[in-house]
Amino acid sequence: MDRRTSISLMTVGLAAAGVSTTATAHDSGGVKLMVLYGHPPNAEEFEKYYLGVHMPLVAAMKGARRMEAARCLPQADGSPPAFYRVFEAWFDSPEQMAAVFDTPEGKKVRADVPNFASGTTVTRLVCKLD
């Protein structure tokens, strides 16, 4: 699957990702979106854009319970981590997550990913919280 197809999965919500949007997550604590970024070709450029441009767009997006971004540390044996960065956002339900990403601010966030993630992998996971 190419990057644009992967990005569009988020735009159509969980149904496109193979998770039923009719299943309620309210009784289980909601859902969590995880975005896992592979190692970029140029970490300095990635960081400059990610922190200076992309994350302010993310901060303007309202509706998530909580959002966190983190840079991955080396493994215990000193080897590189499997991913370079991780972003997590918690939502009340799959429908609420889809609605947040369907706002003008959410659309800007989705559209911005190719501007800094070119040359690396972007893996998205949506998890039902227990």
The total tally of domains equals 1
Mean pLDDT across all residues, rounded? Answer: 84
Distance between the termini: 29 Å
The computed structural class is: alpha+beta
What tags apply to this protein structure?
4 strands, 130 residues, alpha+beta, four-stranded antiparallel β-sheet, 4 helices, Alpha-Beta Plaits, disordered N terminus
Structure description:
Keywords: Signal. This protein is 38% helix and 21% strand. It contains four helices and four strands. It has helices spanning 3-11, 43-60, 94-101, 104-117, and strands spanning 31-37, 66-71, 85-91, 122-128. Strands 2-3-1-4 form a four-stranded antiparallel beta sheet. Residues 1-27 have low confidence and may be disordered.
Could you outline the blueprint of secondary structure elements for this entry?
Elements: H1 3-11, E1 31-37, H2 43-60, E2 66-71, E3 85-91, H3 94-101, H4 104-117, E4 122-128
Antiparallel strand pairs: 1-3, 1-4, 2-3
Helix pairs in contact: 1-4, 2-4
Domain EthD: 43-119
Signal peptide: 1-25
Pfam families: EthD
Kindly summarize this structure in a few lines.
One of its GO terms (molecular function) is oxidoreductase activity. By secondary structure, this protein is α+β, with helices and mostly antiparallel strands.
